[in-house]
Design a protein that fits this description.
- The chain is of the alpha+beta class and 302 residues long.
- The protein has one domain.
- It is built from 4 helices and 12 strands; from the N terminus they run H-H-H-E-E-H-E-E-E-E-E-E-E-E-E-E.
- The strands form 3 sheets. Strands 1, 2, 3, 4, 8 and 9 form a 6-stranded antiparallel β-sheet that branches. The protein has a 4-stranded antiparallel β-sheet with strand order 5-10-11-12, covered by helices on one side.
- Strand 8 and strand 9 form a beta hairpin.
């Protein structure tokens, strides 16, 4: 007897009837695929309008939160950016045994930063802070402290900044206002406040005050005169000597070294500046304090 060959009389494939159990003959004659198709559905126009309305309401409610978050981020970034620039200036003065001058100016944020000159005078806030650092080329102060007529030698010898050299690039901080003077939020009066701080010993050492106008102004870019033809003019100037001591040379303070200096800043929305805060722990603002002799910088924020 011949051996049965493998593959002969193969077993028929298994089949499955997935149709639901029913006694209806018509249902049994329908194709299987028709029973497996999901029912079709869609949104009505009314439903779409309702969903779009809900999204619009949520956007209106959430937008202010994002705006406040961005403002807080802008102030934090600018505050620590200014701190870093001051640290760099002091380090350069000590390392190179020279005098370094840090100029701060607030200009009109509605004007393109490429326009010359940038508007820095007037009675309205501006919303863009510019910072530039220059150093003495020959290591001298360029301004001898005097009891009277202080700064006349600086003006006479300025010669379009030929005695100075730029340290780094001009830095600008948008949506920032620094020409302010915060109230006296001392630790004794506000023991639980993040803004509680010691106050500068003299009013001329708060940069927001007119008495902080320096007799060592300079213009940017270097090479432009003090009276016209410049892009930025810096009249708020902090200088560091070769020992790293910080001063502001005003018309009345000779070579006085303060115990503290302070720069107060607020968040703006372009040129729109909120009122000076009365509650130190509410709002987007910060105080930058400089210890002139040690160079230590502390930042206070709500």
């Amino acid at each position: 007897m011949a051996d049965k060959q493998i593959g002969q009389n193969p077993r028929p494939p298994l089949t499955y009837d997935l149709r639901p159990l029913t006694s209806d003959p018509a249902a049994l004659r329908r194709p299987l695929t028709s029973d497996l198709r999901p029912p079709t559905s869609g949104f009505t126009l009314v439903e779409l309008i309702v969903v779009i309305g809900i999204i619009a309401i949520l956007m209106v409610l959430v937008a202010p939160a994002f705006t406040n978050l961005k403002s807080a981020g802008d102030v934090a970034s600018a505050t620590y950016g200014i701190k870093d620039l001051l640290d760099d200036a002091r380090t350069y003065a000590k390392a190179n045994h020279t005098y370094v001058f840090v100029g701060l100016a607030e200009v009109d944020a509605s004007v393109s930063s490429s326009v010359s000159p940038q508007i820095t005078t007037g009675t309205t806030p501006y919303g863009r802070v510019a910072v530039a650092i220059v150093a003495s080329k020959d290591g001298t102060r360029q301004c001898q402290y005097a009891i009277s007529n202080q700064g006349s030698d600086w003006t006479a010898n300025y010669t379009n900044g030929n005695n100075l050299i730029a340290i780094g690039k001009l830095q600008t901080f948008e949506n920032l206002h620094f020409l302010v003077n915060f109230p006296s939020w001392t630790a004794a009066a506000h023991p639980n406040s993040n803004m509680a701080r010691n106050q500068p010993t003299g009013t001329q050492y708060t940069l927001g005050l007119s008495t902080s106008t320096s007799v060592t102004p300079f213009t940017w870019p270097l090479g432009s005169p003090l009276n016209s033809g410049y892009q930025y003019k810096f009249t708020k100037v902090i200088n560091f000597d070769p020992q790293g001591i910080a001063r502001i040379a005003t018309s009345t303070n000779a070579d006085e070294i303060a115990r503290l200096m302070e720069i107060d800043v607020q968040a703006t929305h372009g040129t729109l500046v909120p009122p000076v805060p009365t509650n130190q722990d509410v709002g987007n603002h910060a105080a930058i304090q400089i210890a002139p002799t040690t160079g230590a910088i502390r930042i206070y924020r709500p």
